[in-house]
């Protein structure tokens, strides 16, 4: 069942169109992940979905209730969806009072809310800080208390804007597990953003990619910043590193971003090719990862390059980690990515 | 700039509008511009003592003489007078209407315990009022406040009728405010005739007070003008000040004073017959 | 400067004599100005919060008007209130003119804009996230405003302090509406103005020093609590 | 309320007549109060920044003192300045008493505490990171203070607006040090006080309305620029 | 050569000892990474090393210059070390003015500083935002501009407090490459913190671990949040997941954190063990990574478990990605980690 339904949703900040979503549906009871580069509009979208900001035009329907862009978002819906912002701020009181605040707004008794606040703090590993001054916590501690402050309310919808940025690795796992559990056990709808694709992929049932405010194709893997050579056709992966040659010369100068399609790259044992060949790099296999039915092989050739093979192809090659290999990069696999400009 | 004379005066001369008539004529006749600083009599005299002004124009005869005797002023010119009246509510609870004896009237007011509003600001009017209370022979309460001046203890005595806390309001404000207060409290007050006329006939919200006691000879209010002594303050423009004073007591000045009317009533009576010297 | 020395000695003398008249004046001053500060805060702080939070058509104009009212002359306030409470006014029968209540009414009107504008300034600089956090956690508009006000408390306290300073030293309205009646509505500043009018400068300054000592006491007291709250 | 109606009509009449006397008074008012606001800002803003940034022994006491000076009575300021600039004072020879300069001096002293305390309040609520950022990027103490002041500009503008409102409507000091001399040092508020003394209530209120209109103009002007700067 | 020398350095905030470093030296011209859980004191340390905060006792020597804890840090040293804070804030002016600010403080001409600011913005991929309002940028954009604002000054020491938290994956690479280049080409001393161990390991020559304000051993890998069973000896990796049995019963109840030593875990082909065995989990090999001379094998057994083998051991087993295996977990490999409490 769909919980949020957006059609032609546009948000304008200043005089910049920050969000421009043709059509998007977020399902009830599901974890949906939002990915996308900086400035893609994730935070703006979350603020709108948490009923904290207006949108500019288009339609947004929440659980069958249509919202008007001409009106301030309805206050009563805020009780149903809680946002953990990207950069949370704490009220200048104790940690436990901060966490109990939402419960107080819901008229829960002091004893009850203290108990629940402590439980939520325990879940994010911050119970030891219950009496500490909330506005003096470290970055990661603040993030975790902010999460506790939201989950203690057991909302229908939890919007987490980068809940693990700045959180240490151990607590990151705790938090991800917690979010997964809230969804699995209580059926909580979770919307989450992050720049850490791997763990989002593990957690979310659905990934939505945003770019420049629009729903977009996921950003390609194997992305490199390169330095074009003087002829405009050769590219250097590092200033003194391997050289790639394009099919057509470039129009623009200056550093730019390219991606190499992992499926078009060929992996050869070192003996079969020569390292000096154009568009051929030699490196060491540093990793082999199984992802669905394909193998992702990481080769360190000065930079790490990812190659995607079928399981059969890999078996046939009889290679393993530590082996020295050649990568052949067809000019057709090189895609120059458009530079990001503000809309 | 050198033709500008600085004068401190009591508020009544300015508030009555008299200076508004005199000064433009003065400028026409002599070219002297007067910068008028209006304040209470006490403060006005103090300005003269400190040499902040060239001439003072006030109404407290005794203090003016003292001022000259102490060498702050060169001489006092008697300029004009008006008179004081006792006003009160038309209902007249103390029954003083028609009285020509001010002391008597005050006695009746005290006996009836009807509200009496006093300026209480050491102004000429206030001093006059206190003199009247003294002449009633009623018991007076005095209160002493001691301050230090130039290292010396100085005692200030303030006098009120005894046992008057319920009906005697000492408000420490100007004449107009005193009339408004009396109007509001349906009380009596001693006032100069000029201000009363202004508030009774020249106001948007006329006070509901009647003259109940007048024409007692003790009720005269005499204005004098004194140039500040250049021996004490060499920078003062004594010549200009003398010129100003002489113009005031000249037939021309005196005629203007006598001719000034407010809502058809004469407010000031020229006095300059004799010129007194110390 | 012997003059100021005289004033200090006189002030001490007055205090040592614990003159009942002086005590009465001090009492009137404190009652009147704390009442009007309290009332103006009760009106001005919510007003400032309202202007800070609620968007409505013409809001900028309303803010400009309030800023303009910072320049409200005491004579205008005095006459305005006078017109209502004098015996001829609508509230004449309540016999309010020349009472402490009248001063409180006038002073409250005088400083409501001060409290409002400075409260607005204090909260409009607050991080927007305080408001968003309160809202997303389910707080209603009142609780949200209260949370933001709490975060802006030092700014709001400065607003209240400025308003208090304005009225405890206020002369015009106290004179016009209180009447400076000795033993009734005489306040420290009107007493000072009177002594000045009489030419009793030393006494006037002595009273001023006592007034400042009083204000120092109030502020020291507040600072003490502020210091404790800050920890 | 016919009274207020009369006043409005009178105010319009006065304005339409463009009476040269009125224009002079308005001119004096504006010159004097903008000068004193400017001077007090030049002193008070840096003072507030200093108190906000520099730690020194006894700072809390100094802040309390400044807060106390919010309650500085005009009579005290007036007499204090009087003692210096009257003919007997040290600066007597400069012949400052009863000039516009004298009013400016007194008013400046009156509102320096207002600007200082409110500037301090405005910057003490600023995010500490502004200061740290400026410092780590190599800014000296002055540049750092300037950057923080810039971020707190709306608060500081509110401080200046409050100070301006205080002086444009100020009576006591203008009377005592300016003398309310017609054609020289008469300001709008002292003219109002005089008209009130004369019982000319309508005229007094009319002048008050003109004063408020003037303040409205100044504020509208500032709001306009503030609005543009906010974009 | 050592640049910072700390001895018995203590910092107290509120009444909590946040930093208590026995002895630590940071080398000149080297990238030193600081790791540690939230609240470890990394930000506090960076603030002290950037001469923005006092310390409480002990000694700190910068490039031969001793600093006194009794005095405010000397202003002139701030010109030599620039901090990019964890949560940067922008002055409310344009992006380019923000970046040019430090140059202005150094008396550089307008033309010159605009040029340099643009170059620095280009390096972090934010040139397109030069004229935008800096205080309205998104979280990741702000981070990147803050970095540009520091590197444009070409300082001797660059202190980056989590420079990539909140930065998108593509720009993360750009930033890391940039930091590496500044160090390699200009010899800039870099101090950096992050919660992302893998990439820090690639970048930094030295890793310093902080915990509760003290220099500590690195936090172990294979860390899991577990749920003890009712008997206090069995642990569950997920509520319904595999069970581990401890040698000794636990004292405390409630969720806790354990680590499994990757070197003590044994990897067996599925046919050799039984999945039902206690302390034996079955899973699929999902990755093989070469790290120095050892292989790290990732097995997905409901949770991802890391096993460390020598290259010889691995070769002998003849296993590969996608193979089903058994992991045997000796009770001795299970370490219960102490709960973090504020000092
Ligand atoms: N008030 C504003 N005026 C103009 N532009 C704005 C304003 N607020 C945000 N933006 C721009 O809108 C874009 C979207 O911002 P948003 O915070 O939604 O991005 P995001 O996807 O959350 O990015 P990040 O990953 O960095 O957090 C950014 O490019 C930002 O600069
Ligand atoms: N003013 C303060 N009063 C009391 N405790 C404080 C204060 N400031 C910081 N702390 C505490 O000091 C500890 C160290 O904070 P710091 O910001 O240095 O941690 P950190 O290592 O940077 O953490 P993170 O990874 O979350 O950024 C934290 O536990 C924090 O709560
Ligand atoms: Mg964001
Ligand atoms: Mg930190």
How do the helices and strands line up, and which of them pair or pack?
The complex is a heteropentamer, with 2 copies of chain A (343 residues), 1 copy of chain B (278 residues) and 2 copies of chain C (231 residues).
Chain A: E1 2-13, E2 16-27, E3 31-35, H1 42-49, E4 57-62, E5 65-67, E6 81-84, H2 95-105, H3 110-123, H4 139-151, E7 157-161, H5 169-186, E8 189-193, H6 197-203, E9 206-211, E10 214-215, E11 223-228, E12 234-236, E13 243-245, E14 256-260, E15 266-269, E16 280-291, E17 294-301, E18 303-310, H7 311-317, E19 324-328, E20 334-336
Parallel strand pairs in A: 3-8, 3-9, 6-7, 7-8
Antiparallel strand pairs in A: 1-2, 1-4, 4-5, 9-10, 11-12, 11-14, 12-13, 14-20, 15-19, 16-17, 16-19, 17-18
Helix pairs in contact in A: 2-3, 2-4, 3-4
Chain B: E1 4-10, H1 11-15, H2 18-30, E2 33-39, H3 41-49, E3 55-58, H4 61-69, E4 77-88, H5 102-112, E5 116-118, H6 124-136, E6 140-149, E7 152-161, E8 168-170, H7 175-185, E9 188-192, H8 193-201, E10 210-213, E11 220-227, H9 238-249, H10 251-259, E12 261-262, E13 265-266, E14 269-270
Parallel strand pairs in B: 1-2, 1-3, 5-8, 5-9
Antiparallel strand pairs in B: 3-11, 4-9, 4-10, 4-11, 4-14, 6-7, 12-13
Chain C: H1 2-17, H2 20-53, H3 59-68, H4 74-85, H5 100-124, H6 128-136, H7 141-151, H8 153-168, H9 172-178, H10 188-197, H11 201-230
The structure holds adenosine-5'-triphosphate (2 copies) and magnesium ion (2 copies).
One adenosine-5'-triphosphate sits between chains E (13-14, 16, 18, 36, 38-44, 86, 342) and A (136-141, 166, 168).
């Amino acid at each position: 069942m769909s919980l949020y339904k957006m059609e032609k949703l546009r948000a304008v900040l200043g005089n910049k169109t920050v969000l421009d979503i043709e059509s998007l549906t977020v399902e009830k009871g599901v974890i949906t992940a939002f990915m996308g580069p900086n400035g893609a509009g994730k935070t703006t979208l979350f603020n709108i979905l948490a009923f904290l900001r207006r949108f500019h035009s288009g339609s947004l329907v929440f659980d069958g209730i249509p919202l008007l862009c001409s009106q301030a978002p309805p206050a009563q819906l805020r009780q149903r969806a809680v946002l953990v912002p990207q950069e949370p701020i704490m009220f200048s009181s104790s940690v436990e009072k901060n966490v109990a605040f939402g419960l107080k707004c819901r008229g829960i008794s002091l004893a009850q809310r203290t108990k629940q606040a402590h439980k939520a703090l325990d879940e994010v590993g911050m119970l030891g800080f219950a009496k500490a001054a909330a506005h003096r916590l470290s970055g990661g501690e603040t993030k975790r208390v902010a999460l506790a402050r939201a989950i203690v309310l057991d909302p229908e919808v939890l919007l987490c804007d980068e809940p693990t940025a700045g959180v240490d690795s151990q607590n990151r796992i705790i938090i991800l597990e917690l979010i997964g559990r809230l969804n699995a056990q209580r059926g909580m709808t979770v919307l989450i953003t992050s720049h850490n694709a791997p763990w989002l992929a593990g957690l979310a049932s659905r990934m939505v990619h945003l770019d420049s405010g629009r729903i977009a194709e996921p950003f390609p893997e194997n992305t490199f910043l390169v330095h074009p050579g003087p002829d405009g056709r050769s590219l250097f992966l590092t200033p003194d590193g391997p050289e790639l040659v394009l099919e057509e010369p470039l129009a623009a100068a200056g550093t730019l971003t390219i991606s190499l399609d992992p499926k078009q790259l060929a992996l050869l044992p070192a003996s079969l090719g020569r390292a000096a060949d154009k568009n051929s790099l030699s490196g060491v296999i540093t990793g082999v990862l199984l992802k669905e039915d394909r193998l992702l092989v990481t080769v360190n050739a000065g930079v790490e390059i990812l190659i995607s093979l079928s399981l059969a192809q890999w078996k046939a090659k009889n290679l393993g980690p530590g082996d020295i290999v050649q990568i052949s990069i067809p000019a057709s696999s090189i895609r120059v990515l458009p530079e990001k400009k503000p809309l | 700039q050198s033709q500008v004379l600085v004068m401190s005066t009591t508020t009544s001369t300015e508030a009555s509008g008299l200076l508004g008539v005199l000064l433009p004529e003065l400028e026409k006749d002599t070219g002297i511009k007067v910068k008028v600083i209006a304040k209470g009599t006490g403060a006005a005299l103090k300005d003269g003592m400190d040499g902040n002004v060239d001439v003072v124009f006030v109404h407290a005869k005794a203090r003016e003489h003292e001022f000259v005797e102490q060498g702050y002023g060169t001489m006092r010119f008697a300029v004009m007078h008006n008179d004081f009246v006792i006003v009160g509510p038309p209902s007249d609870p103390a029954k003083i209407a028609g009285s020509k004896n001010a002391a008597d009237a005050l006695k009746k007011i005290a006996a009836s315990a009807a509200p009496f509003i006093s300026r209480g600001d050491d102004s000429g009017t206030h001093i006059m009022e206190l003199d009247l209370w003294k002449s009633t022979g009623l018991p007076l309460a005095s209160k002493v406040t001691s301050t230090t001046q130039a290292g010396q203890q100085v005692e200030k005595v303030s006098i009120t009728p005894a046992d008057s806390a319920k009906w005697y309001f000492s408000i420490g404000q100007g004449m107009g405010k005193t009339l408004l207060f009396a109007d509001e409290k349906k009380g009596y007050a001693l006032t100069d005739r000029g201000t009363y006329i202004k508030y009774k006939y020249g106001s948007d919200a006329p006070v509901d007070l009647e003259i109940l006691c007048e024409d007692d000879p003790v009720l005269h209010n005499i204005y004098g003008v004194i140039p500040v002594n250049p021996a004490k303050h060499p920078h003062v423009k004594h010549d200009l000040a003398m010129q100003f004073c002489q113009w005031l007591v000249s037939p021309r000045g005196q005629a203007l004073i006598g001719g000034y009317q407010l809502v058809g009533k004469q407010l000031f009576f020229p006095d300059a017959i004799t010129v007194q010297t110390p | 400067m012997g003059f100021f020395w005289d004033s200090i000695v006189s002030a001490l003398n007055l205090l040592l004599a614990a003159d009942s008249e002086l005590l009465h004046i001090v009492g009137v001053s404190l009652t009147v100005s704390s009442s009007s500060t309290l009332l103006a805060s009760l009106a001005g702080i919510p007003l400032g919060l309202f202007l800070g939070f609620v968007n409505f058509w013409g809001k900028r104009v309303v803010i400009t008007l309030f800023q303009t009212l910072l320049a409200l002359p005491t004579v205008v306030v005095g006459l305005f209130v006078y017109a209502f409470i004098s015996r001829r006014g609508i509230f004449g029968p309540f016999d309010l003119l020349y009472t402490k209540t009248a001063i409180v009414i006038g002073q409250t009107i005088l400083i409501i804009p001060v409290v409002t504008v400075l409260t607005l300034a204090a909260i409009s600089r607050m991080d927007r996230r305080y408001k968003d956090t309160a809202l997303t956690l389910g707080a209603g508009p009142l609780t949200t405003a209260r949370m933001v006000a709490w975060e802006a408390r030092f700014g709001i306290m400065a607003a209240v302090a400025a308003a208090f300073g304005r009225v405890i030293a206020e002369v015009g309205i106290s004179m016009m509406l209180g009447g400076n009646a000795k033993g009734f509505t005489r306040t420290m500043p009107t007493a000072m103005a009177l002594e000045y009018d009489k030419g009793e400068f030393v006494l006037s300054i002595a009273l001023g020093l006592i007034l400042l000592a009083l204000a120092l006491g109030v502020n020291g007291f507040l600072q003490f609590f502020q210091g404790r709250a800050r920890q």
